[in-house]
Give the backbone structure.
Amino acid sequence: MEKGDDRIKIVVIGGVACGPKAAAKARRCDADAEITIVEKGDFISYAGCGMPYYIAGAVKKIEGLMMTPSGAVRDVEFFKDVKGITVRTNTFAQSIDRKKREVVLVDMKSGQMEAMSYDKLVLATGSSAVVPPIEGVGMKNVFTLHNLNDAAAIFNYIVGSNAGRVVIVGGGLIGLEAADAMGAQGVDTTIIEMMPHLLPQILDLEMSDYLAAAMRKEGVNVLTSAKVLKIEGDSDGTARKVITDKGEVETDFVILAIGVRPNTELAAAAGLQIGETGAIYVNEYLQTSDPDIFAGGDCVECTHSISGRKAYIPLGSIANRHGRIIGTNVTGGRETFPGVIGTTVLKTMGMNVGRTGLSEAQARNAGYSTVACISPSVDRAHFFPGGRGILIKLVAEEGSGKLLGAQIIGQGDMSKRIDVVAAALAFGASVEDMAKLDLGYAPPYSTAMDCIAHSANIIRNKFDNTANSITAAEVRDKISRGERFTILDVRSPVEVEKNRVNDGRVKNIPLDKLRQMMNELPKDGEIVTLCQAGLRAYEAQVMLRGAGFSDVRFIDGGMALWE
Amino acid sequence: MEKGDDRIKIVVIGGVACGPKAAAKARRCDADAEITIVEKGDFISYAGCGMPYYIAGAVKKIEGLMMTPSGAVRDVEFFKDVKGITVRTNTFAQSIDRKKREVVLVDMKSGQMEAMSYDKLVLATGSSAVVPPIEGVGMKNVFTLHNLNDAAAIFNYIVGSNAGRVVIVGGGLIGLEAADAMGAQGVDTTIIEMMPHLLPQILDLEMSDYLAAAMRKEGVNVLTSAKVLKIEGDSDGTARKVITDKGEVETDFVILAIGVRPNTELAAAAGLQIGETGAIYVNEYLQTSDPDIFAGGDCVECTHSISGRKAYIPLGSIANRHGRIIGTNVTGGRETFPGVIGTTVLKTMGMNVGRTGLSEAQARNAGYSTVACISPSVDRAHFFPGGRGILIKLVAEEGSGKLLGAQIIGQGDMSKRIDVVAAALAFGASVEDMAKLDLGYAPPYSTAMDCIAHSANIIRNKFDNTANSITAAEVRDKISRGERFTILDVRSPVEVEKNRVNDGRVKNIPLDKLRQMMNELPKDGEIVTLCQAGLRAYEAQVMLRGAGFSDVRFIDGGMALWE
């Protein structure tokens, strides 16, 4: 597109995250362009990810989610005065005429229609909350949590009705953030998830079970593998009970957090290519199948940089990065989006939860042969006050040693380690690279060898055959099959006293007595070693194998996953 | 080295960080090796980096610095029982006979000498505190802070004497951590630094000045470009006054934190190569010039991965990583140490301070043509409660866009961003790579586009010539030269009211009025734009240049560095 004397006309459909970002960047790249944002709702350029914190009461005014860091409200006037961008709210984009380069708009208040011409069109149409086709979802106290109106409605309902109980349908990211908000509001929460575990797209089973246990401890009723059949209510349309195939749950209101689907109707009707995930296809420049029409945010699919597969990952962070690239490219730039690696973080019930790259299940699905480790860690020097735990799972490829992903859960600093792994994954790091990173060490921030490097070393030890592990789940299966083997618990007597493992197979020998007492163990028998965090059990395994014991493995993750 | 029936004999000189780590890893790699650690002091395997926190009172018992995470004290018995490693404390390694493969040991209590043979020798002789050759350094209340005895002495002195004032000589890492400990103990602190700014090896001038201002606000008396001439005291040898070329400071005690020098005497006397930095030379396998003698930790020099130059960077994190590699290699492995990128983090007076890679001054010294940005940021979504500020400086190479380093200072989460940059630097990342990382976003952890990616984008904008900046220091120089130009302050009236910039050159036009009011500005005159954090000033610069103003730059870092 040549820029002549005529001002280029850029029309952006969608005014929440990707759209305004694209428009603002386009303005910075081209002072003369005529830029219009079209938004069907009332609000523009708001922080959707902040909605749970508004409901929780942590963000005091809903306007807070629409403000710039310096306190200006990003409304129609702001875009006009500061950015020189026209915003049309309550305006619906009905269709695109690609030949004429026009988009047909409908004023949702007056009903008037209008054709607006464009040189470049940006589709940032976002996503919609999925509402399951079951009886009762239309009741007045059944909410979704997808836009500011939803957030306001939920907040007002809690405050107005003194609601004390909620059922959240869906144990994904939004469901868990909603649960956190409910906890902050003192509302008793039941989460119903159809899959066998929470966050099924994000965590492997054992990590998810660890999270569910922590949430239950905080009073959340977590039901998994449970299917909602219907919602029952009063004659006035107030939901009172959620009926599942596993029983009923009485409640004061319901939040549906099943997931979202991309808004592709406009694109599809215009004949633009829809990808295999059901979202709009875009190339690396974020162009749709029509090179003058760009798309980004929740309405498009991305390429997963690790698996190489298409993925639908609707996240605010991605929408913002898309917006910047689109703003550059609609004004003559040629910038690429490198794909996603699936980094996702959330906070729920005091637990920091994060994933980057592939989970082990996803990696195996993608054809990788995997080696993983689970390492309970403390987020700073153990002698430094205030340290908190995190449970780290790292996943790598057998053979190549390529790092594939990480999952971290705990009260401690998850966010740093997830972002470090995310950075390493962007460059195709191996576990050796990861272990050798020159990360910052001071006692308030980390251990001398940070726990994420330590985890990488555990996987390297597994590759070397120095470390031979068994998962807690495998040991439990062996026990339930009635197998004979020794569980060697090498914790100190004080630790054992506090939290004894009760099984006839258990033998307690503290690590510092093991060298002297190893003759009490069967040299050819099967031994699995156990300690609190896995490190001493690993040392015991090394010690016993060094002394000629033939069949010794340590329990990965220690007591953290044993219980 | 073939492993036959004979057990390999490994002797490790030095028992603090690298030495014990090397020994423990060697044991895990070789169950049969005969491993001895020789340490001249009383204590082994302690967390030297924790000493300031013991003095501060945050670590309650000094034994806490010698414990494993599970609470076992890492003493001679622990190494014997758990690791199968012999430790000889109070034993001095006097000389090495490389032909005989023997090291001569002196029992420091009995004075008895003994020759100990080795197959592989590990030098982990550490460093010593530099004591300047000035009058008064021998007085009884003049301390260094280098080992556990020093830490205990300082702590006991404060508690025992009710000392209320300290002079810390040296404004490097140890000096600033000591200042933090003094703050925690309620001791009034003066820091005397010979160079023009604090942390001269770590921070650029303007970042260091920002830190010094924050420390002064917390009551620390910071004297820079000041040389200590002598320490004066009572006739009983109690220091009372520190005399500098800039005046005298009365005090109750003195901490010398000038720096450390590598302990190379043993290596040098044995004819091992000493590197250009004055520390022991080692190759990538951490072998000295004698392939059977390895060395690591504070006594060796490293290669800086970015500059390619030799560097002496004595840090506990590096010592630990060295130890693991040496343990592998003395038992037949062949692992490499990839070099360092200079990641250093510390906490002082409530400020988190970090650096990774090269500072701008170091980069220019190393021959790079640099572009930098300074960006005041908040560590999480601005609407989320509890967010805290960090000031980020990123440095990149002009032309290639290669990332060279980062410096971050503030009360907010510095540590995450420094480690993310450290990870990216390990792979030779460009600022574009940095900007496009798939980092985790949720409001408690970051902004939708994390501040570190935002900083990378600012540099990209400078490369593109979209962003044209001037430093606060340059503007101050222009003012002091009496130059005529306009300072356009685009903050809101409320912000200006709170903190007005008083200069005749200043014109206040809030950003949202600038499009209407730009005709009040001189189209051909020089304009520098100013706001709180730099973002709006940048937008104003873009807006004015888009409107045909020819000479407009924004002040990098906004008010953060203006004051």
Observations:
- Chain A has a mean pLDDT of 95.
- Chain A has 17 helices and 30 strands.
- The CA atoms of residues 174 and 257 of chain A lie 6 Å apart.
- Chain A touches chain B through 103 residues (CB under 8 Å).
